[in-house]
Amino acid sequence: MAKIIDGKEISAFVKNRIAKEVEEFKKGGKEICLAVIIVGEDSASKVYVANKEKACEALGIKSLKYALPESTTNEELLELIHKLNNDKSVNGILCQLPLPKHLDEKLIIENILPEKDVDAFHPVNVGRIMIGDYDFLPCTPAGVMEMLKYENIDVTGKECVVLGRSNIVGKPMAMLLLHSNATVTVCHSRTKNLADICRRADVLVVAIGKAKFVTADMVKPGAVVIDVGMDRDENGKLCGDVDFATVSEVASAITPVPGGVGPMTIAMLMQNTLNAAKKQL
Ligand code: NAP
Questions:
Q1: Per-residue DSSP letters for 178-226?
Q2: SS3 42
Q3: 52 Cβ neighbours under 8 A, 6+ residues apart
Q4: Which residue, judged by its Cα, is nearest atom 48 of ligand 1?
Q5: What is the pLDDT of residue 281?
Q6: Atom number of ligand 1 nearest to Cα 188
Q7: What's 241's DSSP letter?
Q8: Whether the CB of 99 sits within 6 Å of ligand 1
Q9: Mind listing the pLDDT tens digit for each residue in 192-225?
């Protein structure tokens, strides 16, 4: 049976580290502030935003929530973003995605000041990740790297396979592994011989959004398996992209869902907010 990589434990460790630094800021009379914008009534987005507010509160970071109606226009949203860009008391700005269809996500993201872009979605920050000279990392891949570090899993020279090539998970994940000297293969829906490639992996990171897609026969015995997926199984229960029951019999270490990568994502958002404040102050 594989070792369970416990995202709750590791995120608590990270948050504790952040809380101490926030405390130091406060002693110096400074407050760290994250502005969170949500447009419309998407119920999943509301839950994510509420969790982000809770995390801020727990760590002593001030959060400002802007809940805008579904009818908000690009111009109105841009006006708010420009106001927050110019507000020196705001260190980080996060616009919860997806936005309602009539809004131009690309335009909105590109208007957030790169130094306040705590999601690291702005093209400037994406470019910096590519060259390995960054202030912010996208929260989910950064959370995965933090988990590997905490578990003393050194990827240097290892075969790492990333399943999925999205801009928010797969691609930056591959870059971070590459910066850590792994040999990286990225797979996607057109990849041929997917199972063979997965079986080569010393570290397999899966982010495709397909419930229990990766089965034990696709995993090399002793591999480390990181499951980013957040899916629903046939009974509507939360599960990952990896068939945990069978893969945990083959892998040496594995993240569960829930309680794996998920909790790390918010912890890393808090880290980015702290990093933004440090840089600005
Ligand atoms: P996405 O934007 O839908 O991208 C999915 C990727 O998987 C695409 O690159 C797609 O390939 C690839 N893919 C789909 N089916 C495949 C298949 N059968 N074989 C190989 N590759 C396949 O998804 P995402 O935003 O990266 O999210 C992926 C999963 O992670 C979802 O379950 C999401 O809920 C979860 N997630 C979790 C967190 C967290 O905090 N834990 C954060 C973000 C996302 P193509 O490019 O060829 O279409």
A1: HHTT-EEEEE-TT-SSHHHHHHH-SEEEE-S--TT-B-GGGS-TT-EEE
A2: coil
A3: 34, 36, 63, 94, 266, 269
A4: 189
A5: 85
A6: 21
A7: S
A8: no
A9: 999 999 999 999 999 999 999 999 999 999 999 9
